[in-house]
Amino acid sequence: MEIFKSGKIYNFMGKRLPFLGISFLLVTASIVLLLTKGLNFGIDFAGGTIVQVKYEQKAPIDKIRDTLKSTNYSNASISEFGSPEEIVIRVKGSSSNIANDIGDEMHVLLKTTGEFEIRRVDIVGPKVGGELREKGLMALTLSMIVILAYVSYRFEWRFAIASILALAHDIVIALGAISLFSIEVNLDILAAILTILGYSLNDTIIVFDRIREGVQTSKESILDKVVNESVSRTLSRTTLTSLTTFFVVVTLYVFGGEIINGFAFTMLVGVIVGTYSSIFIAASFLVQLKFSISNFRAKEADKLKRQKEKDKLRAMYEQGTM
């Protein structure tokens, strides 16, 4: 299926500086938000308690909030969990100020809100939360290192640097959006960030693969023209993939309930920014890094020559002529 005209070449590189300028502003704004406002770490990373409650009727969330406002749990967040009758109460704080009998306390505090049962009480200590934060950061760092090594091996070091810059661009903007809207950062958000990494890398690799193919097969010696042709040829595929993912994520965000809204929102931002960077930013970084078509072709020709010599020697050996 072709969304854009087959054979039409769009001048993406002619507009790369304005798009790089937009990205610079978005990344700068995101960094400022992260430094000033910071991230709203959830219980997974900050420590606290999760209480799962099941009512016999629809859970009166507003009444529960009003009831807890005048207690030690005034900072609790309450969200629906799977069905209208079931809720999750999240209380941030260290284990030192959270009583071990919080289930019994909730029974007493919420007795006026209806008939219910406490189904689960989970306590995450601040030490465990800190360890989860460290492991999450380590997972992101190791992912970047492995991606850098993989792209360097498969392509050329400038492709690797360009892909890492594009991925960092996507992650920083996604984190900026999370900070701006005060989305609670928990393990679901970390999973969404890692998913964005894989999604954006997949799109970028496809574009870079087409650029490499264009460099090898085209007679064109101007990089901008090769990039324009390569990106234009992948435009329909990139757009279709992104739209399909976008509609799925929007459905999750609208109908998935409050419990999955953070994950869906992060993915929504990631799909939009990842698609934008794959089309307009990743290849622009490659051009800015002064990738040389002539040097690349010379290396490929030398590689092919050495491979032919190896094949010739192998053939001579098998025939017993050496």
Sheet/helix structural class: alpha+beta
Estimated radius of gyration: 26 Å
The helix content, as a percent range, equals 55-70%
Proportion of strand residues: 5-15%
Low-confidence stretches: 95-99
Largest sheet: 4 strands, antiparallel
Topology order in helix (H) and strand (E) letters: HEHEHEEHEHHEHHHH
For the biggest β-sheet, the strand order reads: 3-4-2-5
Counted beta strands = 6
**Overall average pLDDT:** 83
Span of the ends, CA to CA: 55 Å
Task: Write a structural description.
The chain is of the alpha+beta class and 322 residues long. It is 67% helix and 11% strand. It is built from 10 helices and 6 strands. The chain has helices spanning 16-36, 43-46, 61-69, 102-109, 126-154, 157-180, 187-217, 223-255, 258-288, 293-319, and strands at residues 40-41, 48-55, 77-81, 83-92, 116-124, 184-185. The strands form 2 sheets. The protein has a 4-stranded antiparallel β-sheet with strand order 3-4-2-5. Strands 1-6 form a two-stranded parallel ribbon. Helix 6 (157-180) runs antiparallel to helix 9 (258-288). The longest helix has 33 residues, at 223-255. The radius of gyration is 26 Å and the shape is elongated. The model is unreliable at 95-99 (pLDDT under 50).
What does this entry show, briefly?
This protein has about 325 residues and is of the alpha+beta class. About 65% of the residues lie in helices and about 10% in strands.
